[in-house]
Amino acid sequence: MDSTPVTGEKETRRIGRGVFLGTVAGGLSSLWWGKAVWGHISSPVSRVAEAIAPILPSKGWRIYTVAAMMPVFDSATWNLKIGGMVEQPQELSYEQLRALPQASQVSVFHCVTGWTVNGVHWRGVRFKDLLAAAKPLPGARALEFISAEKPYVDYLTLEQAMLPDVMLAWEMDGKPLLQEHGAPVRVVIPDMYGYKNVKWVEEINLVRSPEVGYWEQYGYDNDAWVGRSNGYGT
Amino acid sequence: MKAGYVRRFSRVERLLHWVNALGFFFLLATGLILYLPSLSVLVARRQLIQSLHFWSGVGWLAALALVIVLGGRRVLRTARELEAFDRDDLRWLRGGKAPQGRFNAGQKINAALTAAFTILFGVSGLLLWFGEQDTRFRFASTVILHDGLMYVSLVLLVGHLYLALIHPATRHALRGMTLGTVREDWARRHHGKWTPERQ
Question: A172 has which bridge partners?
């Protein structure tokens, strides 16, 4: 034996075991209360984090990708195709897109994995204005969003896309959309989880009905309403 | 053993420490790539990093379990020593001067927290992995728990590294964790109640 702990006349208490078990119990129970508590303390914590370390994801964003490479945006060559069941297929340059009627909003972004970013400022175009020139045909009931990040694709019904706070955004928090947030344009639909907010959109097709999107093929819900889909609140 | 030196950590204790440290640093590095937007942009292969992170986490837990099982009673004896606090330990924690055993009270708390965090990291990591495939494993707070553990662990790690590498009075302890032995006079000064066996 290498060593002998001193015991003897002094009584000892198993405080270490208490610390261990208490920490495990507290941590496991936080699976139920963690998000609610974090909701109350996250904004002061974020401000401190932002001040001390600019590389911290202080606002809470995490970047999820599915392909090996993140798409690179070049404004000289980029364009957005609008096709499928439309009278007039469109190809819009970045400039033409930004010349459309603009809308802005402040909304909350929820990820299905549990993180949330409050108060995100978006600027972009509402789908009513975006699709006006293409003139969807009567049978078209849904939009297919094809991402430059292959093979990412997702769908919204036209009804969902026409909700008042849904847009195709090119600006976030006052700056052109960053690469990791989907430059140059992404879908913003605050009432649905992030996987419906397709990044790096390069093609929008009008289709008869929604098909199975990228994450939906792994069992995620088609209608990704925040708080009432994907096993939450159901 | 060199004259004037005493054995502080057994081989099993050192192995457990270094397996834990190696796993932690690898998981920290891969985890930060997944977590920090600025690193996600630099290393865009998220799927690969995610698999590396997950499987190295599984390997880390398995390796720790293996050392504990192989260590058997020796590990159990160390655990008993770590969990036991006497009056001097409590006095020490309150900032008073009190003689300490082979582990001081701060090291005992650190060990208890580290062990608890390992379990919590493991549970929340498995839930994140399986939750991506099945809603039954999905909790809204899993990601907050996993991230929160990372932040608290980082704070503990910074303190640990400071005491083990920089602080002049305590950094001699690193020798104990690498070679197993420490100077006898140092041991007497820092761990007065510990009576090491001389060989």
Answer: A122, A175
- The answer to whether residue A231 neighbours chain B at the CB level (below 8 Å) is yes
Query: Could you report the per-residue pLDDT of A60-97, keeping only the tens digit for each?
Result: 888 999 998 899 999 999 999 999 999 999 999 999 99
CATH value at residue B183: 1.20.950.20
Class of domain A79-218: alpha beta
Inside any domain, residue B195: no
- pLDDT tens digits, A152-173: 999 999 999 999 999 999 999 9
A-facing residues of B in 132-191 (CB < 8 A) are: 132-136, 138-145, 148-149, 180
* Residue span of the structural domain in which B59 resides: 5-190
Mean pLDDT along residues A120-149: 97
- Distance (Å, whole) CA B106 – CA B20: 19
pTM: 0.84
Q: Considering chain A, tell me which residue range(s) the CATH 3.90.420.10 domain(s) occupy.
A: 79-218
DSSP secondary-structure letter at A177?
P
